[in-house]
Design a protein that fits this description.
heterodimer, A: 478 residues, mainly alpha, 14 helices, B: 112 residues, alpha+beta, Alpha-Beta Plaits, 4-stranded antiparallel sheet, elongated
Chain lengths: 478, 112
């Protein structure tokens, strides 16, 4: 039986090999007529097309996978991460915020969000050329990604537009009305996310490093676009809404670090799609970003847990996973620009820095950034964006070129001190847009439908007061 | 009839359970509880925030026995639940007026 199987396998393997050899020995074009020459050029053209198709398929496979991975970061990743950190009575309300964005932002993106972010426009915002996804089909847009359908690029970017407002929810957890949250998120997507995405990544964007923006800011996967904007908006929300009832006198420990743990691990895995996918192709740049991402997360987990160990005498699970997320945040802008060792360093610094922001700075100022959206995403994102300017390497990613096509230095370590200034401009614009945009939106929602649930509803919990259900049904099951 | 309520260390449940069974106790009710006596609680840290936890998880074992069996059962609990440290828990005894078996409405000690 075994012998027969082996023989069959050998034959199956040899047959195509022999066929190939036979094909190679067949004489190609025995006469030297012009007909044969044109025949050859036709075959060459066909081969080139096949090679291009193969590359396109490979890139597209990775980009569709990455798109799915980034969606997984919001649901269930972020939903579990945040859901575990709140009190029992708010677990569904918190998860629902993430999930609602998966639906709402998707609709917005299809109608006009993608057009405002990536359509041709001015330096600050895209135009209306791609509303209702007009012109977004199988044909690639070489300005963004020349080997994948524009539709793949569109759906990949959509996943970023979904998770970014979701991060803000960590700041106003356990006290925002669901209706107010929806209106806030819709307006925030349009007024803050779309312009920021356009400035950094869109055609003609003010900060676009790849397409010749005025202040070329290096932001590989969204350090400014995703983390600084959401993190800073989170701080504004925490300050505007005020503290939760009972904070900081009443203890409000996470109701399930187990849920948060699963969420954080899903975030780590999903982040490979977020960062390595931002190469927009399946080549070596994706590998480089993948490796940098992983190394930063690992070092940051050690950094945060180590800092805790020194201060409290024990390293906590929540500390380790929070650290990993902080490292992932910080490496996001740098992922496709730095080699593994600087990635380790960026992660380590981010882990310790975000721990300090969350444990010390928040307590000192007394704001109730409930789940530390600012302490992790705002602080870590800002740190990462600046460190990207320091450690960016033209060997990893030759993004700056002179008129003759020669590669120029990327970051401060390579002698391009000016880049730190560009990074500062990018960060400053992200902070400014986030603060102004969020304040305006909060004010509008506040005076129209109101932001916070009533005190009674807050004490009851969002699950019951906003959704009429409970995450953990009390009655024993029959 | 007497109700014996023993609040014990979580880790001692198995030992107490088998000691009671050996002493001839046939049924029991076990509840996860939180509380504190003289034992100090502990502190927990979540993202740098310190929480002092003074209600410590304990296990409560409840049995209702004919008076003749009470001392034997108490002895079984004492010998199996003791570690000698603060936090070993307490045993409370109280009189029970009646007991009713739901299935057939037996009453008194016959229902135990």
């Amino acid at each position: 039986m075994g012998k027969r199987l082996i023989a069959a396998l050998v034959i199956a393997f040899l047959t195509p090999c022999l066929a190939q050899i036979a094909a190679a020995q067949t004489p190609v074009g025995t006469s030297s007529t012009s007909g044969a020459a044109s025949d050859q050029s036709v075959r060459l053209a066909r081969l080139e097309q096949q090679a291009a198709d193969a590359k396109s398929s490979a890139d597209n496979a990775w980009m569709l996978t990455s798109s799915a991975l980034v969606l997984m970061m919001t649901g269930p990743g972020l939903a579990l991460f945040y859901g575990g950190l709140v009190r029992k009575k708010n677990v569904l309300g918190t998860m629902m915020q993430s999930f609602a964005l998966m639906a709402v932002v998707t609709v917005l993106w299809g109608l006009f969000g993608f057009s405002l972010s990536f359509g041709s426009g001015n330096s600050f915002i895209g135009g209306w050329h791609n509303v209702f996804l007009h012109g977004v089909g199988a044909t690639p847009d070489p300005d963004y990604a020349g080997t994948i359908p524009l539709q793949t690029f569109m759906v990949y970017q959509l996943m970023f537009a979904i998770i970014t407002p979701g991060l803000i929810a960590g700041a106003f957890a356990e006290r925002m009305k669901f209706s107010a949250m929806l209106v806030f998120m819709i307006l925030w997507s349009i007024l803050v996310y779309d312009p920021m995405a356009h400035m950094v990544w869109g055609k003609g964007g003010l900060l676009n490093a790849a397409l010749g923006g005025r202040f070329p800011t290096l932001d590989f996967a969204g350090g400014t676009v995703v983390h600084v904007t959401s993190g800073v908006s989170a701080l504004v929300c925490a300050l505007y809404l005020g503290r939760r009832v009972g904070y900081p006198k009443e203890p409000m420990p996470p109701h399930s670090v187990v849920l948060s743990f699963i969420g954080a691990c899903l975030l780590w895995v999903g982040w490979f799609g977020f960062n390595a996918g931002s190469a927009l192709s399946a080549g070596s740049l994706a590998t480089s970003a993948f490796v940098a991402t992983h190394f930063a997360a690992a070092a940051a987990a050690l950094g945060w847990a180590g800092a805790e160990w020194l201060r409290n005498g024990k390293p906590s699970t929540l500390g380790a996973i929070s650290g990993a997320v902080a490292g992932l945040v910080a490496i996001t802008p740098a992922a496709g620009f730095v080699s593994p060792m600087p990635a380790l360093l960026i992660g380590l610094i981010a882990g310790v820095f975000c721990y300090w922001m969350v444990a010390k700075v928040k307590a000192k100022f007394g704001y109730d950034d409930s789940l530390d959206a600012f302490g992790v995403h705002g602080a870590g994102g800002t740190l990462g964006a600046l460190l990207t300017g320091v450690f960016a390497s033209s060997v990893v990613n030759p993004i700056f070129k002179d008129a003759q096509g020669n590669t120029l230095a990327s970051g401060v370590r390579e002698g391009n001190a000016h880049q730190l200034l560009n990074q500062l401009v990018g960060v400053a614009i992200a902070w400014g847009l986030a603060i102004v945009g969020t304040l305006v939106i909060l004010k509008v929602v506040d005076i129209t439908i109101g932001l916070r649930v009533s005190e009674e509803e807050e004490v009851q919990g969002l699950d019951l007061s906003q959704h009429g259900e409970e995450g953990y049904y009390w009655e024993a099951s029959a | 009839m007497t109700k014996v309520e023993a609040i014990i260390q979580n880790s001692k449940l198995e030992a107490v359970k088998s000691a009671l069974q050996e002493a001839g106790v046939e049924g029991m009710t076990v509840i996860e509880v939180r509380g504190h006596g003289r034992q100090k609680g502990h502190t927990e840290f979540y993202r740098g925030r310190e929480y002092s936890v003074d209600l410590i998880p304990k296990t409560k074992v409840e049995v209702v026995l004919p008076d003749s069996m009470v001392e034997k059962a108490v002895h079984a609990i004492l010998s199996s639940a003791r570690t000698g440290k603060i936090g070993d828990g307490k045993i409370f005894l109280s009189k029970v007026d009646d007991a009713i078996r739901i299935r057939n409405e037996d009453r008194g000690e016959g229902a135990l």
